[in-house]
């Protein structure tokens, strides 16, 4: 393994992986090395460009913290996240589609009772969200757990504000709820608004150099889990948003767009009263049942191969 | 640009780069996105694997400091660095070959006079290095600048030791010298030894999972610059080292291997006396003349196309 050149180095690197701990790791790294090398050969990458790449990744690493995930932003803006979502969420057409996870989910958001206000007073127009969670045969999914999270009216998630003196970020405009026995849920929040992804770092500079804007159309994040069903990570998008066709992270799906209906000041869905106009949004989520062990998931696009026994 | 799936997302991402600031950036990013997506499709990357990748890069970013460059280690161990070196250092066969830069070069190393000891007392067996720097027609390259750097007998570079109280690392076993008017140089140092690349971080864990060792064969780094010649970044390797055929960063070239000759205790090449055995090493560097403006670099492997005037 001496005198490697552009033609034989890829084979030499892969030969070093003969004793990899797992077959899958070896498979993934084989493809990664092949594509990484093919990229460098295709563009005849210069040494200066290579070094710029090293510096770019170093900057991405250094701006990344517990609450800012610039590598996820990078993956999102290069379309990798949406591609991985698409590859891993093949399911019957009737099911609610998945979209990108994004960098702003926080584990352990506070639990709310149905009807409560998850916004915790952040800036924004009042919005009453309701919906139901069903399975493929329209059966209600009782007590399904919903995690919701969103930006406030200034386009910021809670974790983007300076931390409190104890280093934490209060949970604002995010929460965990459980649907009722009929799979129905409702809560209060603020209207989701379009916002730019954080663009004061290396990914923002990359977008600028590529002549791209950093905006995402208004959306509310949902992660829904229930025993017997595939976890669903998705957004609901607001109809009419001007960025629906140029989402910086390529996440928009037509089936996830719905109306946020405006109502004049007056009585609100929770029986209260609003001094200002408010909004309502209603969405029906259809979960994909998990295949029962031993039973072939026949409704999936890519069914497992039948094995002779 | 909605409802992107695994088949059309790559085209959609590339369409967003229509207004990129430079043609070259657009070209590089087009290939990068194509290969990144093809990788994910080829291996049908799972969401869990994607997240493991995000965490891996985050860890690489967080261990990287001014003096520890884990992204370069990653590039080196995946063979990307040697590939980029090979792509960018095509030159006549008579010229000294280039090899990887590595992560341990430091800008502004102290200047030494010919004959001085650059080791600054690090652990190791005494070694007297000499050589000459010539061009393709064997013409001496007067006053060529050499930067040299190496690990000590324990396999550590100075920057790998804890920093001094002022945050700096003293320069040890590295220095800058100028050849004399005849292109000749000599200095004292310690014998280069084989060493493992830093493997207490994410790249080390990657190598372990791939069943690879982290060792590099003994070598001394050189960066040689002189007006009128291409800069040469290379190593000289020590003949007989057991890692010459399994260098963790794929950098060995037969033409760069030479004997470190052992001598018994006694008179040293600088007229001094050694109480212990010592070593000598002698290497002739052949630089590639820069193409004179307007003149075609005919001796290069890939000559520019002749243009009709």
From TrEMBL, chains A, B:
Which cofactor(s) are needed, names only? Answer: Fe(3+)
GO molecular-function terms, A-Z:
catechol 1,2-dioxygenase activity; ferric iron binding
Q: Which GO terms describe its biological process?
A: catechol-containing compound metabolic process
The record's SUPFAM superfamilies line, in alphabetical order, gives: Aromatic compound dioxygenase (SSF49482)
Q: Which InterPro entries match?
A: Catechol_dOase_N, Intradiol_dOase_C, Intradiol_dOase_core, Intradiol_RC_Dioxygenase
Q: Which domain of life is it from?
A: Bacteria
Q: Which residues form the Intradiol ring-cleavage dioxygenases domain?
A: 122-287
Record's keyword terms, sorted = Dioxygenase, Iron, Metal-binding, Oxidoreductase
Domain Catechol dioxygenase N-terminal, residue spans: 24-95
The family this protein is said to belong to: Belongs to the intradiol ring-cleavage dioxygenase family.
The protein's name: Hydroxyquinol 1,2-dioxygenase
Organism of this sequence: Sphingomonas ginsenosidivorax
